[in-house]
């Protein structure tokens, strides 16, 4: 497929810079592009590559256009516009309806004819699978699971009993949804008893979950991810968590049980979010931060980690961290002694 | 099933508050309960919901009973009592003995007739599976694995060679037990050679492992989790680790190789525990803490993370962290100068 | 198999201490060894066990030989020499060529006759599998995947489209390679659109990936792990990351997108490495460190975490961390006031 610059401007907005008849049929990095490639400049880190690019068309914003040696589409949000164009050039593969003969489908399950069911898939009783759903090889859908139309499960996903997915959800390989929450109670003899986890997990529409991430079922009510929530890989979502629409969590972050995160939040990679707290809408949490308390005002929050350093300096400063309270007291004493007359 | 308050008091202990003939048949949160529901109050965070609950019976402790608008079972440990009652109302599903025709069982494996073996399960030579074990779809039991009676493996669990499970163990989906420990030795040409990991993994009775958690096999002797150990999701247990009975680890925590953790410890979520250290019995580690040295006294330990803050303040304070040793020296100098006469 | 000390010295180098005819046929820890066992002493932590060992032969360095009560092989790097000898005593299991009848292989895939293909394996069109590759049960190789000779995939590994593995690679169970990178762009209505991830993942020769680790496909170009890279369990490698030869990452570490790590680096467990940075060759990062900026000089780097403490002290010092910038200003003021005349 070839796309012409003038068409792109028409369909996706933005201003044409250079020859409106320039066409591209693939995407590339600015550094590796040739004249048939679409490139983009969104992160200023890569601005130095613009001047020497051999791309056919670059998507960029107005600030950068003067440095662009080739045709360009000048837009406000180059990353978004690039995403929209690239999605045209690289459409999702079409599904191949049909059930592989090695799939095991309970007669009491309902699977739409338009679905693609891969080898080794297991579908238990009471499961409902909507139109045009793709179930990758070896996925397991336990009793009572429900999957909305046009969702796609990559191979080796496991959904426990009664998990509900909306439409157009994407679950990557190794995802486990609905395992029991970590609810255990200590008995007199020091052993633990499991607290029944009778809630399930409900995902809205357009939710995407990264590889090997886990979402636990609720203790009593469901764990809920609203429409458009995006999770990266290796994320842990504890029981009873509620995540608002269009909130995104980057890789290896974790949310402990019963916490409520608002809509349109951005949680950085490896962030740790305590249990039983509430985070309002429009909060950004920086990578690796530890969020220990509720957040009631939109904004950017950090904490958790201290800066990187060479190992020797870090060790020295770390020792002082353990003396910090003592240092603060000494400092107060000194202040009183030195400035007593100036108070 | 309906349970009457008077019976509950008899069977589980505690004092009856209100009408002893009150019955319930399900559980609910205090906020969502109706008159047929059992609720509980264990976490003081939820105390404000008690006054308006429409529950039939609430399990709570003596402090809260005056605020309870309905019948109650007054006990010392409401969470434990709730767990015991809820387990009656929501029993584990009964197993359906039998082997699915798509399971692949080596003739030299022994699987008790009472077991439930799901589709796509693979059982290699020398495996021994005890009575009434449930093997979920697509589980793989490699050579020489042994599983005690009444254990349950959810779908897509992999056990490497010779892994041994006690009785009543529960492994959630995606668990991998017995992969080789990360033992590598550097050669003269900078490449790595694998150090053979000839130990295996031994789990006691009543061990539960959360989804996608990994337990590596020992380098020489086994990695060991004693009776009643509970692991949440996405946890890493390195080779040669030994975890004492009834110790629980919350999600995404990790224990590096050759560390020994005592019995009855509680390890918070995302905690990082160094290798080659020893932690005594009855230690609690707070969430996200980094435990770098052995702990020889029972108690609560923290460290690792600094408090959350708005991003700007955190950045300012972080800069100072790198000056902390210098600050401490200046402070000492000042102290000497100002208080020299008072020494 | 029995190995004689004199032979070991000849084949692996090192000096014989004690009777050169001593033979061993297995390995053991110093504490548990008997006269038929090979032990080793590499970590000084275990030196106290040397004096009482009943081992037949101990591999150790010159410093320790005087304390050794039995025969010894005296070498410069006992861990490496032990690894080489142990690899002789415990060779990898031989592969059993053949395709299990339950495997599903697309007619347009090429699988060498010498391969071992386990039950439930799924191989899609265009896949190429080299000589003597072992594919464990339920592995899924998506369209266009290529696997070099003598590689081994443990059960339940998923490779997405076009992932390329070199020769002698080892992937442990639950590994997911080639899931889409976390590239999402916000639209005007606050919803996210996926940015197509058209790159794939390329692994060099001799790469090993630990259980349940994830390596995302590149946004445009491939994510690359060069020859001899070793990853432990539960590691996240973001899209477009490039890792140089023989670099090793310990468990639960994570590398955010577009970061370049050099060759021969050692990344500690639970380390977090920011996106879009560059780390030069020969860098060591301590466990749980947060690496936020590029590193241009070889060395050991730390940061991220503060030291462990009892919970009460940690809380006190943590409070002061939030006052650190203020403390530093006060300190400066005091310094000026007290030392003004000494400047």
Biggest sheet features of chain A: 11 strands, parallel
List low-confidence stretches of chain A.
Answer: none
What is the structural class of chain A? alpha/beta
Determine the CATH superfamily of the domain at 3-89 in chain A.
MurE/MurF, N-terminal domain
Give me the side-by-side strand order of the main sheet of chain A: 8-11-14-17-20-25-28-31-34-37-39
Shape of chain A: flat
Word description of this protein:
The structure is a homotrimer. Chain A has four helices and 40 strands. Chain A is flat. In chain A, about 55% of the residues are buried. In chain A, the strands form six sheets. The first copy, chain A, has an eleven-stranded parallel beta sheet with strand order 8-11-14-17-20-25-28-31-34-37-39, with no helix packed on it. Chain A has a ten-stranded parallel beta sheet with strand order 9-12-15-18-21-26-29-32-35-38, with no helix packed on it. A nine-stranded parallel beta sheet of chain A has the order 10-13-16-19-24-27-30-33-36, with no helix packed on it. By secondary structure, the first copy, chain A, is α/β, with parallel strands linked by helices. Among the domains of chain A are: about 5-90, 3-Layer(aba) Sandwich (Udp-n-acetylmuramoylalanyl-d-glutamate--2,6- Diaminopimelate Ligase, Chain: A, domain 1), CATH 3.40.1390; about 310-343, no CATH class. Chains in contact: A-B, A-C, B-C. The interface between A and B is large, with 74 and 77 residues.
């Amino acid at each position: 497929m070839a796309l012409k610059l003038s068409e792109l401007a028409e369909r996706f907005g933005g201003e044409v810079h250079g020859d409106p008849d320039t066409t591209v049929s693939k995407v590339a990095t600015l550094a590796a592009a040739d004249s048939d490639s679409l490139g983009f400049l969104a992160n200023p880190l890569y601005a130095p590559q613009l001047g020497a690019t051999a791309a056919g068309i670059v998507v960029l914003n107005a600030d950068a256009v003067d440095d662009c040696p080739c045709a360009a589409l000048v837009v406000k949000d180059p990353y978004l516009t690039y995403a929209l164009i690239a999605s045209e050039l690289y459409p999702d593969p079409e599904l191949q309806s049909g059930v592989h003969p090695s799939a095991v489908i309970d007669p009491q399950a309902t699977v739409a004819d338009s679905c693609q069911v891969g080898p080794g898939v297991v579908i238990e009783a009471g499961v409902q699978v909507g139109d045009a759903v793709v179930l990758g090889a070896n996925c397991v859908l336990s009793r009572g699971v429900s999957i909305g139309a046009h969702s796609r499960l990559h191979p080796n996903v496991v959904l426990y009993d009664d998990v509900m997915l909306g439409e157009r959800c994407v679950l990557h390989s190794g995802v486990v949804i609905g395992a029991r929450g970590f609810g255990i109670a200590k008995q007199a003899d020091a052993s633990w008893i499991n607290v029944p986890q009778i809630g399930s997990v409900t995902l809205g529409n357009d939710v995407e979950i990264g590889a090997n991430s886990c979402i636990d079922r609720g203790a009593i009510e469901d764990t809920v991810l609203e429409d458009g929530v995006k999770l990266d890989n290796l994320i842990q979502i504890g029981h009873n968590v509620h995540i608002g629409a269009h909130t995104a969590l980057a890789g290896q972050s974790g949310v402990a049980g019963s916490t409520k995160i608002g809509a349109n939040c951005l949680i950085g990679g490896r962030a740790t979010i305590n249990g039983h707290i509430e985070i309002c809408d429009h909060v950004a949490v920086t990578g690796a931060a530890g969020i220990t308390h509720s957040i009631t005002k939109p904004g950017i929050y950090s904490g958790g980690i201290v800066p990187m350093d060479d190992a020797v300096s870090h060790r020295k400063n770390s020792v002082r961290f353990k003396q910090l309270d003592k240092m603060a007291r000494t400092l107060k004493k000194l202040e009183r002694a030195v400035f007593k007359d100036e108070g």
